């Protein structure tokens, strides 16, 4: 509307100048009419031959890298390089560029910069998106805005370049995962996933050595050839079904707890992703059960497509459950009973959860994401962990993800 009004104003001004020149005459009217004609020609050239014909390209990658990278791990930063090709007759001295990055939950980030057309009618604009959170991001339309040299008229254009960024949860490496299990469950616990599969005598490859592997499993030729410990890999035949249960129930007691509990939920998602990632690397069949506003269940299986589907869910999952995980397990007791192994990532170590696990009558390991903030809550958590362990359930307590990550880095070095 403003653009239409400005053009109407210019036309009215031109008509008035024309009438003044025709009916008044003289050098003043001629000079005024000539200046106005030159100005209008400049504005029309800027409108029809300028910013309306800009083309652009967006390169997404790590800082210093020159290849497209649209799948990263949470916490990393990305450098966006936007290249624009301007038309040959670009009379605008500069162009203001703005881009909007939209997360899957609707959160928006706005980035603005300035581009100056050079002799080759092209320019680049770079900016950094720091420490991206887990989620899926997409770019809205890129807006260009410019003014003429006199500041009389603005020109705008929008182009859409289809780019998405997938930010997956952080995961522990195989060495860190092995060290985590060794610290909490003992030196022979690193095979806690592979113990649920049985092996044939037919060897089909070589894998990295893991703590607890018997001497008969060591592949001496590969160890001597590579200089690092290698073990024989055998064809496996599944015996039990492993299922990761993700607790999505977060109930803050006050507004101050929202941010703290949200950080705990991110830790729980990272732990669930680590379990899935570790199982895939060991070719162990595993599934995922995650219930909130939307129900998600993938039956235990192997393969990259199966793994990608579960990781895509963890990429965008939110803490939107309305019931605790103990009620979820209670309602699915019959479905989970039998030959199942549960890996439960939870904030809850309640009596109701213990009762539900007893009803399921299966093997379970709990990854407890500690969220206590007082000494009394810490003592309650210690008592709850002891109660679960007395009943034969393994409990691994996770506090701060960064602390866990750094300590395991140091232990594994």
From TrEMBL:
It comes from the Bacteria. InterPro entries: DUF58. Keywords: Membrane, Transmembrane, Transmembrane helix. Residues 206-366 form the DUF58 domain. The chain crosses the membrane at residues 6-23, 30-50. The keyword Transport does not apply. It holds the Pfam family DUF58. This is DUF58 domain-containing protein.
């Amino acid at each position: 509307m403003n653009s239409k009004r400005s053009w109407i104003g210019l036309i009215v001004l031109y008509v008035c100048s024309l009438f003044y020149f025709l009916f008044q005459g003289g050098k003043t009217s001629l000079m005024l009419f000539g200046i106005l004609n030159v100005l209008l020609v400049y504005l029309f050239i800027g409108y029809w031959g300028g910013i309306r014909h800009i083309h652009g390209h967006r390169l997404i990658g790590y800082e210093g890298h020159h290849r497209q990278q649209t799948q990263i791990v949470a916490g990393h930063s990305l450098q966006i390089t936007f290249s624009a090709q301007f038309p040959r007759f670009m009379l605008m001295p500069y162009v203001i560029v703005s881009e909007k990055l939209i997360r899957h939950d609707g959160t928006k980030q706005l980035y603005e910069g300035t581009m100056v057309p050079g002799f080759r009618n092209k320019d680049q604009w770079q900016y950094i998106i720091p420490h991206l959170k887990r989620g899926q991001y997409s770019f809205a339309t890129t807006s260009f805005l410019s003014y003429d040299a006199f500041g009389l008229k603005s020109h705008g254009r929008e182009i859409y370049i289809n780019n998405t960024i997938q930010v997956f949860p952080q995961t522990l490496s195989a060495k860190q995962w092995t060290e985590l299990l060794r610290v909490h469950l003992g030196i022979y616990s690193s095979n806690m996933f592979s113990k649920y599969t049985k092996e044939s005598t037919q060897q089909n490859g070589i894998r990295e050595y893991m703590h607890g592997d018997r001497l008969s499993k060591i592949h001496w030729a590969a160890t001597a050839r590579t200089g690092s410990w290698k073990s024989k890999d055998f064809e496996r035949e599944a015996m039990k079904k492993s299922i990761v249960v993700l607790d999505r129930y977060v109930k803050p007691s006050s507004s101050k707890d929202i941010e703290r509990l949200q950080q705990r939920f991110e830790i729980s998602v990272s732990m669930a992703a680590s379990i899935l990632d570790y199982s895939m690397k060991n070719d162990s069949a595993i599934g995922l059960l995650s219930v909130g506003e939307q129900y998600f269940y993938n039956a235990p299986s192997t393969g990259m497509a199966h793994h990608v589907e579960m990781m895509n869910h963890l990429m965008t999952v939110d803490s939107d459950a309305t019931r605790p995980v103990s009620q979820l397990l209670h309602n699915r007791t019959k479905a989970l009973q039998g030959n199942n192994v549960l890996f439960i990532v939870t904030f809850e170590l309640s009596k109701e959860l213990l009762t539900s696990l007893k009803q399921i009558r299966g093997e379970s390991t709990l990854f407890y994401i500690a969220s206590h903030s007082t000494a009394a809550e810490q003592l309650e958590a210690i008592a709850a962990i002891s109660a679960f362990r007395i009943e034969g359930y393994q409990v691994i307590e996770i506090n701060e993800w960064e602390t866990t990550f750094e300590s395991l880095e140091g232990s594994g070095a």
